[in-house]
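Render this sequence as a predicted structure.
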Amino acid sequence: QETYCYAQLVGMNKSTSTHKSSSKTPQWNQMLSFDVRAADNSPTQQLQIDLYEKGMLKDAFLGTTIIPISVLLSHKKRWWDLFANKKSNVAQGRFLLETDWKGSGGYPKLVSYPKGCMVGIVSAFYGCKSKSVDVTSVCRKIVDKNGMFKWTGGAEMKFVFACDPCPGAQKTLNIRYYSHGELKTQEIQEDESENIELFVGDLESWIEEKDEEEKEAFRQRNKQRILNATKETKKRIEAAAKKAESTEEDLQEEAKKVRKIAELMQKLRVSMSERRRAEGLAVVRRLQTKNEDRSRMNKNFLERSTEIEKRKFKETWKTEYDPAAA
């Protein structure tokens, strides 16, 4: 197996080197650095890690996990589950991740409520009596536009929050929230089978209460992050195109050699037996077919690589990739 990890955070994409081994427990021991200042001190940002296996035409997807920064900060070093996709709650494996935070500025700062705003989730903690993690930002993202926090009965909390702070112990989710101006609390057991709905207010109202200057500043920061991500995506697409172009040039050179062999056989056909000439022409045709197949595979590789990059960009930034913007 030739495996590697692909990490995404606040518009930055980085990958580890490829680990070549037949073992199912690869070790990269590699550091990937991200400038979290681009996250605007918001713990709602998430680190996504995907595991791939190198392939001839397409890299095989092995698993993924998404870890909110607010949860990641609670664990310097721990094992995280890998899942089949973003919606699956069946673990396909796990990986060990160690984080180190450097710098100053009081990061992270939880999303605060506007003054006088008496709606919304105030705090949410997931765990047991001995240990719990702050999952406030994750729960706030579950609130829909109608102001409803909906918890699906039977949902696995360790999957929703991408961690298990107390392995083997019974865990709960404790939520403090404002509803119609009244501060309330709700405790949800890990094995809760019933659906739970809480009215916590309209998330859109938080944005409406921000002044125009702050909203414009946010739009500009977001625009810059999209621009940076566009540049990085464009670099990767251009690198793939350059690699495909180089491969195509090599294939063209091989095609020339095959044509020369065919021409030489035509010149020597008088001195060759019918059987030998037929065998030689069969070899030439096989070489030509192989060369054409490799050329087609090379074009498919470029198209597929470009398609994957554009899809990843759209999934991350919720907008189409526009190379002209870079």
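Summary. The chain has a mean pLDDT of 79. The first helix runs from residue 69 to 72.
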